[in-house]
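Quality-control log, excerpt.
Job 1 of 2 completed; input and output follow.
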Amino acid sequence: MSGTNWNLGSVGGLNFHSTVNGTQVGTQNNYPQKQNLIEAASEIQNLLDHLSQRYPMETDAQKQVIAAEFKKEVEQKPELRGRIIAALQSGGAEALKQLCNHPAAEIAIAAYEGWSNA
């Protein structure tokens, strides 16, 4: 048996009393990280698909052009930029690259990661 009494009168008059009898087992599941990673990967995929319709991507140099255009597009969309940075921080670049099914994804994500860390 345990008990907790808190009196936080100086923090706005909050009084808290809790008594725990027996054993409590709790489970906390936090899934938004994976969902955010999937959403960011989907948005990256869509943007790269759109860019690859406008630019050829036969060579690595052409993929670099797509990566540069990808950066320009992302910089014009602050919400997308924030989601990509959050996905990179939470899941890492490798996870994001694996979720994107596009030939230029690896170059674009690596380049964007480098630009956002600079």
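Job 2 of 2 completed; input and output follow.
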Amino acid sequence: MSFKKTYLKSKPVCKVTFKLSKEEAKNAQKVRVVGDFNEWNLSASPMKKLKNGGFSSTIDLPKGAEYQFRYLLDDHEWENDWHADAYITSPVSFDDNSVVSV
């Protein structure tokens, strides 16, 4: 699990590419990245399945903010990004949410 940040010079936006390997995705058939940036919409932001079995998705995020997120595997299992910038306890569960700062 990881993400890559690419800051645009022309706009106050950061392109964040979220990636999960096949092993990290636990052989899921579909994965979504769900968080503050899509209002925790469980049907938003499907990740593209890669030929190697991993998943990837790029989301444009306004700079100067922190966003909480988690990965949703096959619509039922939540997974954190263990390379996140920080972790915050979720207000709706006992789990932590991953945080990306841009």
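Post-run check on job 2. The first strand starts at residue 2 and ends at 7.
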